[in-house]
Amino acid sequence: MTILNTIKPEFQTAFPRLASGKYVHFLMVRHSQSFPVFQTDGVLNTARTQAGITTQEAISRLVMFKRKQVSPERLVGRELLRSLNLIDSEDKKVENFCRYGAEQFCGKCPDCVIYGFAVGDSGSERSKVYSDSAFSLSVYQESHKSFTFNSLSESGTMMLDYDDPKRSESNKVRSSINELDHILPEITFPTVETLRDPTYEGFLYVLGNLMRTRRYGAQESRTGTMANHIIGIALCDGEIFSNLHFTQALYDALKPDINAPIADILNKATEVTTNLLNQEPIRKTQVITGSQLHDLLSEVATIYQDETQLRDTLNTLYQQTKVYAETYGAIAGKKGKGK
Question: pTM here?
Answer without folding.
Answer: 0.89
